[in-house]
Design brief:
Elements: H1 8-11, E1 21-24, H2 34-43, E2 48-51, H3 63-67, E3 71-76, H4 83-90, E4 95-98, H5 101-112, E5 117-120, E6 134-137, E7 140-146, E8 150-161, E9 166-167, H6 176-181, E10 183-194, E11 213-216
Parallel strand pairs: 1-2, 1-8, 2-3, 3-4, 8-10, 10-11
Antiparallel strand pairs: 5-7, 6-7, 8-9
Length: 234
C-alpha cells in the first residue's frame, strides 16, 4: 500500500469533508502538523470539529483555520494563546468543549484502543462533570468520559521510515501519538523519511500500522512565547 505522498494537499486528497471530526497532534506550537493544517485551510472544507490540546496562535497552527471560520467546534484543554479563539467563543461563533488536559489525552488514547468510555475523578464537582454519568468506586465518585473516535488524525513527527514507523522529539510526543491512534485515517508529516530497517526498533514511538499516509516537508518551528533578557554590560 502506498504511504508516501508528494505534498500535504496530495496526502489529503479525497479525505476531507465538511463537518468531519479531526484529531490534531501538537503541544503549544511544538510538534504541530502545520503543513497539513495549511492544506486543510486551502481545501475550503468547513464546519469542522477539531480535537487538540490547544488551537495554536492567531496566525499559525490551528489558528489559521479559526481565521477562515472553517472550525465549528473545538475540543481543547487550553485556549490562552489565541485571541481569535477567545473572541469567537465569547461572541458565540465557536462551540467549545473544555477537557482537562489528561482527560483529553486519555480520550484519544481510549479511542485508539477501541475503548468507548472510561471513568475518571478529574472534573468531579465542577462544570466538567455536568450532564455526565457519575459512579462510585471504593467510596470515591468518578465521572464517565467518552473515548474519542476521529474521522481523521493529523500528526507531526521527527522521523519516519518508509512503512510509517514514527519517532517523535521531546514535547512533540505529548499529544501526537494518542491523536494518531484515534483517527480512522492517520496522515503524518515528518522532517525526514529514512529507509525501512534503519530505525532502531527500541526507538520507535508509534508503529507504522497506525499510519496511512505520510509526507516529508520543511517546518517553520516557531517559538510560542519568546522571552529574552538584555545583554549585560561588559
Amino acid at each position: 500500500m502506498k504511504k508516501i505522498y508528494g505534498s500535504a494537499a496530495e496526502a489529503l486528497d479525497g479525505v476531507l469533508s465538511d463537518g468531519m471530526l479531526i484529531a490534531a497532534g501538537g503541544f503549544g506550537l511544538c510538534g504541530i502538523p502545520e503543513l497539513l493544517i495549511a492544506a486543510i485551510r486551502d481545501s475550503g472544507v468547513k464546519d469542522l470539529t477539531v480535537a487538540s490540546n490547544n488551537a495554536g496562535v492567531d496566525d499559525f497552527g490551528l489558528g489559521v483555520l479559526l481565521q477562515t471560520r472553517q472550525v465549528k467546534k473545538m475540543i481543547s484543554s487550553y485556549v490562552g494563546e489565541n485571541a481569535e479563539f477567545m473572541r469567537q467563543y465569547l461572541s458565540g461563533e465557536l462551540e467549545l468543549e473544555f477537557n482537562p488536559q489528561g482527560t483529553l489525552a486519555e480520550r484519544m488514547r481510549a479511542g485508539g484502543a477501541g475503548i468507548p468510555g472510561f471513568y475518571t475523578k478529574t472534573g468531579v464537582g465542577t462544570q466538567i462533570a455536568e450532564g455526565k454519568e457519575h459512579k462510585e468506586f471504593d467510596g470515591e465518585t468518578y465521572i464517565m468520559e467518552r473515548g474519542l473516535f476521529a474521522d481523521l488524525a493529523i500528526v507531526k513527527a521527527w522521523k519516519a521510515d518508509e512503512t510509517g514507523n514514527l519517532v517523535f522529539r521531546k514535547a512533540a510526543r505529548n499529544f501526537n501519538p494518542p491523536a494518531a491512534t484515534c483517527g480512522k485515517l492517520c496522515v503524518v508529516e515528518v522532517e525526514e523519511i529514512v529507509p525501512t530497517g534503519s530505525l532502531d526498533p527500541d526507538h520507535i514511538h508509534l508503529p507504522g500500522v497506525y499510519v496511512h499516509r505520510l509526507i516529508q516537508g520543511d517546518h517553520e518551528k516557531r517559538i510560542e512565547q519568546r522571552t529574552v533578557r538584555k545583554r549585560e554590560e561588559a
